[in-house]
Amino acid sequence: MTQHAVLPEGFEGIDLHALAEREGTPLYVYSAPALCTRMRVLHEALAGLDAGIRYAVKANSNGAVLRLLAEEGAGADIVSGGEMQRALRAGIAAADIVFSGVGKSDAEIVMALDVGVGRFNIESRAELEAIQRLAAARGMVARAAVRINPDVDALTHAKISTGKAENKFGVSIEEARSWFDAHAQWPNVQLDGLHMHIGSQLLSLAPVRLALARMAAFWRELQAAGHGIASIDVGGGLGVRYREGEQAPDARDYADAIRAALDGFGGRILVEPGRWLVAEAGILLARVLLEKQGQTRRFLVLDAAMNDLLRPSLYEAWHDIVRIGDATGRERIDYDVVGPVCETGDTFATGRELVRCEAGDLVVIHGAGAYGASMGSTYNSRPLPAEVLVDGGRYAVVRRRQSFDAMIAEECRAEAWRTT
Ligand code: LLP
């Protein structure tokens, strides 16, 4: 899929001006065909392997998106009880759910045991012991994988790098080895899997190959020592092209790297893509509130802000921004594209060349399908935006715009004073 194939004016046969008029802005718009295409491309790339796709729900946790991916055969990679419930409600079988995350609470572990999630990806000795204790209390045996921290530099933004020794994720191969050697200590945990996830928005496969090689060597060592390994979960992280000229890896090359590293492995292979499946299938539609010539810079103030799409503020992430509509005779101008939130960090782009915009114009922020709505907040008391799914010239609202009342619904006056 090439980026922006569906734009500028229409998005999957939907007139974006009319859509913005009807549903308001800011508005997340997702393409159902683009989501399905990505699933199929990945399935094809993995063909011949006994591989399962465990979609990383955090990338876009909208129920309609989850249902669509589930219909295309995705299971789920979850990191919280909330994501577990979302996955189950979307019709994903508990057996097709893997539970990752560095801090699972007892309540979440119990919920996962009760519903029968497929596998825990264990990230610490304390977690291993908690799962043993809680599974034993229920007379159950939990299936689990050890998340290895392979200590490789994923060559991505530091805030989304997870596979270096100094990161909080996973355990060293030495520690994992000691767990396998002492596995009899945890009779209610069937430790028969390996897991890794070295980071997100990986634009080079070199770190993936290095990490896979380390994990594969460990699997061979365990096998030789008589420890059966039933599954190897290679994590997510496959990057996408946010920006013209950026080179993102091809899914087939990624699958080939897995194929090569795990040659001879007879168990199940799991992959946990998030971004790659959903990023380019989504846009954020926003309206220009005003143009402002500051003392030194020219600002374009949108009605979308960092609370709607945090990535540029948090990671200095680039998202292509395009004004839609007839641009005949319009000059091009360098804008700082910002939102209305009261922080200088509420900036989508700095010195970005766009066709001249005026109040009321619509702009599209590309690549917003992943880590967009799912990272949204109501900061500055801005209600969460609406989300729509488009397909075959029609659209469906898949999340209503949050009302003011819904935004403050859980707040109460300080009336019911209690003592502990
Ligand atoms: N598996 C695990 C255990 C993860 O922690 C993650 C993402 C994934 C899979 C999916 O990674 P992906 O395929 O989407 O790269 N908010 C950041 C990205 C954070 C990723 C966190 N973990 C962003 O907007 O760039």
Beta-strand level of the residues, as a percent range? 15-25%
CATH class of the largest domain: Alpha Beta
Number of helices: 12
Question: Mean pLDDT score, rounded?
Answer: 96
The tally of structural domains comes to 2
The shape is: globular
How many strands?
A: 19
What does this 3D model show about the protein?
- It is a single chain.
- Helix content is 27%, strand content 24%.
- The model has no long low-confidence stretch (mean pLDDT 96).
- Helix 5 packs across helix 6 (125-137) and helix 8 runs parallel beside helix 9 (251-261).
- It folds into 2 domains: 16-28 and 280-407, Lyase, Ornithine Decarboxylase, Chain A, domain 1 (Beta Barrel); 101-271, TIM Barrel, CATH 3.20.20.10.
- The N and C termini lie far apart (58 Å).
- The chain contains 12 helices and 19 strands.
- The strands form 3 sheets. Strands 3, 12, 13, 14, 15, 16, 17, 18 and 19 form a 9-stranded mixed beta sheet that branches.
- It has 420 residues and is an alpha/beta fold.
- The structure holds ligand LLP.
- Residues 56, 59, 77, 100, 160, 197, 200-201, 235-238, 272-276, 311, 315, 371 line the site of ligand LLP.
Task: Characterize this entry briefly.
With 420 residues, the chain is α/β, with parallel strands linked by helices.
Keywords for this structure?
12 helices, 19 strands, 27% helix, 24% strand, globular, binds ligand LLP, alpha/beta, Lyase, Ornithine Decarboxylase, Chain A, domain 1, 420 residues, TIM Barrel, 2 domains, nine-stranded mixed β-sheet, eight-stranded parallel barrel
